[in-house]
Amino acid sequence: MSTFIRGGTVVTAEQSVRADVYCADGVIKAIGLDLDVPAGAEIIDASGQYVMPGGIDPHTHMQLPFMGTVASEDFYSGTAAGLAGGTTMIIDFVIPDPEQPLMEAYQTWRGWAEKACADYSFHVAVTWWDDSVHADMGKLVREEGINSFKHFMAYKGAIMCDDEVLYNSFTRALELGAMPTVHAENGELVFQLQQKLLAMGMTGPEAHPLSRPPAAEGEAANRAIRLAEVIGCPLYLVHVSTSDALNEITRARNSGQRVYGEALAGHLLLDESVYQNPDFEAAAAHVMSPPFRSKSHQDALWKGLQSGNLQTTATDHCCFCADQKAAGKDDFTLIPNGTAGIEDRMAVLWTHGVGTGRLTPQEFVAGTSTNTAKIFNIHPRKGSIQVGADADIVVWDPEGTRTISKTTHHQKIDFNIFEGMEVKGIPSHTLSAGKVVYAKGELKVERGAGQYVKRPAYAPAFHALEKIADANQPVPVKRN
Ligand code: URP
Ligand code: ZN
Ligand code: ZN
Fold first, then answer.
1. Which residues line ligand 1 at a C-beta cut-off of 6 Å?
2. Which of 81, 221, 247, 365 has the smallest C-beta neighbourhood within 10 Å, fewest atoms?
3. What would the pLDDT profile of 98-147 be if each residue is shown by its tens digit?
4. Which three-class secondary structure state does DSSP give residue 388?
């Protein structure tokens, strides 16, 4: 099975160049001008189109058990929706319950993900601490290809980490050459504000953003970054939604810390007015954490992407339908947190990024694919168009248009936060491991065709950090 993409412009994070691309055996075999078409190859006419690395969404939650229910999108339907939108790989999250062995949770998620039709990998959350967690982190890195560990600084009474867990886990991650990541919100402050708002009779979704003010994110971002500074490890902040958190990231980066930030398509495009909708279903459908913010934060996030202080984009795809959101009809704190977007991220970011001049096509590729592959150590296998790389490719029609709607999307959710948005710039074809899995509106996916992608630990960067740590070792004062 081989595929020949003819006459397009190959866009990578580094360059744009006219070239044909030949894919066989799951990888890119040849790139060049006017290549001969090998016998039997399926030909895609890419004239007038861009040929780019498939999107990588580093933040999804397929079939996540959360807040008393289970996310409606599973690994099959979710990866299929991603492929329809040009996303060819996800990094999902294994989230053990407190006291649950990490390895046990990891095996459960591996089982669930076997039905995926696009490649996938996992961050593993550290939700508690003891010697077995220390040992399992080692096994996950050395035997299972996990190189990132997630920490929720919010969700008190459920999966929230205190500073002791953060300290232990960041220290262990450094030792293993793995990346700690954080959901940065001060969970105690959020909890106290939730109780206060409920006591005031504020029970509807409009209270959700009030319970999670920007300062709660800024404080947690600063705390995590400062812990990472002292421990000497890098840090990745997921779903950065405020200028408060972005300012902490920027400050740390300017002082030489390896700190990375992710922006969600939703946070870039929607604002907090969605919570004022008098229709409970519509307002509750937007309840996610951190919440949508004011326009000034959106502007800051775009500038963060433009300046490179935010490197990646994601969706935090976590679907709950109206009947699930109804659990919080009388108490906003019981509305399952999460919104969808895996199918729309690429088109929305192209339209509002490249289409407005905020991003160049190369910056778009960097922000939707290459930077994620680099930060999570799977580049150039993923996130690049080069000979030998996985043939995960999107053929992008910059003139193609679509109106986003829950009535036409492939996502398994009865709401779309981008409903009615006209996008210009859409995939015409998506290739996964060299196979055409989406062509002009038609999905041709195969259940279980997606492969688990192992991500090795980051030896070189960490050796550099160890050298710095060695040079800064304290020396006892010699006394008589
Ligand atoms: O609201 C969200 N984001 N739900 C999924 C869990 C998380 O915090 O990422
Ligand atoms: Zn989160
Ligand atoms: Zn999430």
1. 61, 183, 288-289, 316, 318, 337-338
2. 247
3. 999 999 999 999 999 999 999 999 999 999 999 999 999 999 999 999 99
4. coil
